[in-house]
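Hi everyone,

Forwarding the result from last night's run.
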Amino acid sequence: MNPRPRTLRRPPFVCVLLLLPAASCASYPLRTQQAFEAFRAGRFDEASAEFAEAAAEESEFLAGAEAGMVELTAGEWERARERFDAAAGAVRALEERALVSASGTAESLGSWLLNDTVRSYEGEGYERVYLHGALALCHLGLGNASGALVEAKRANQLLEREEELYEKKYRAGGFGHLLSALAYELSDQAGEARIDYERMVEKDVGTELAGQALVRLARAGGRPELEQWIARFGDVPRPPEDSATIVLLAGVGLGPFKEEFALTWPTGDGVLTFAVPTQVVRWQPVSSLQIDAIDEQGGATSARTVLVESVSTVARENLEDRIHWMAAKSVLRGVLKRELTQALVSSNDGNEGGAALAFLAGTLFQVATERADLRCWLTLPDSWQSARLFVPAGRTRLRVGAHGGSSVDLGEIELAPGEWVFVFARSLDTQLYAHRIGGRDVALQAERTLQNLLEHSAGGTGSAETYHP
C-alpha cells in the first residue's frame, strides 16, 4: 500500500510575500503619464483613448471624466457628453445617497482596508460637482439650454451636501451658479437667473461678473434693489438696443495633483507605517484670458475674464477636511499590520530561521502595502473664469487671447439682434484652444452664396443654409 502523499503547507509569510507585487504597483499619475502628456501637447485623440484605457481598470469615473475633459477641450461636445455621462453613471448610486443625506457620502470614506487604493475610486465630492458643470458645458455646446440647467442645478445640490458633510462653506459653487444663471437667461427666466447671481455674491465667487449682471437685470426689470446694487458694484452701461450677447467660459491652466507623504519608524517589535496624500499646485503661465469683438470699422469691444472659481483652492480645502480621516485609517492599518507580523513570528516559535523570515515578510508587507491614494481628476483646469460682452448686431470678428500665452482668431461672424454666442476656451501651459457656439460664419456664408449662384447659373436649385448651434 502506497503511503499517503504529504501535503506541502505554504508558510504564512510566503502568502504575505505573494501580495507584495500587487501592493506596490505604480501610482495613478504614473500610469496615466503618457495620456496626460498627450493632452498637454494638444494630441487630443491620443489622450482621450489613452485615458479611457489607463483609468478604466480601477475607476469608471476617472476613465469617463478624464477622456470627457479631453474631448471638451477639443470642442467635441457630443463625444464629451457621452464620456461624462459614463462617469456620472458610475457614481450615480453614491450621488443619490448624498442627495438624500450628507452621511451617504461618508460611507465610502469610512472603509478600513489594505490601503485606500484597493477601493474603486468614485471621485472626491468637488470632482463630482465639476463633472456636472462639465456636462452643463456640453449641453450648451449642443444648443440645449434646458439640459445645461439640469446639470448646473445638480452640481449646486451636490456642493450643498458636501458643505453639510464637512460643516463648512467652501468658496465654491461660482461656476455652477453662473452656468445655471446663463441657462435661465437663455430661457427668459430673469428672476431665476437673478437668484443664482445673488448666490454668487453671497459666496463671494465671481462677484464682479455677478454684480454687473444684478445691476443689468434690476434695471431691465425696474426692481427696487437697483440703487443698492449700483452702490455696491458700480453702474453698468445699458446694453445697446437689440445687441447680441457673447459669453466666454474658460478653463485656465492645469489643476493640482497628489504626491505621497509617508513615514516608517521602527518599534521594539516591528515597524509602523503612515502614508497620506498631499496636494501639489502647478505653476500657471496664463493668468487670465481676453475676448475681443472687432467691428467692420476696426473698433473693438473687449472684456477680460474674471475668476469664477479656483479649482486648486477647492481641492486643497477638500483634502484638508478629509486628511484626519485618512491619517486615522493609515495609523490603524499600521498597527494591525504590525500585529499580523507579530502573529507570523509567534507561529514560528522555536524555529529561529522561520521566525526571522516571518518578521522580514511581515515588515516588507507593511511597508509595501501602506500607500496613499494619489488618484484625482488630472485634466481639470486650475480655475474656471468667464467674461461677457454686449455687441451691436451685424458683423463682428471674435478673437480670444491668453495673458501669458497664445491667441485664437475665431473668424468673422454675423450676429442677429438678441442672439447669444458662447465661446469655450481652455489654456494648457501657454497654448490656447477656443471654440465658438452660435453666430453665422461670414466666410462660410459667402462660400455657400457663391455655390448657390454657380448652381443656379448651371440650372441647379441650390439653397442657402442657416447655421444652428
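The first strand starts at residue 244 and ends at 252.

Cheers,
N.
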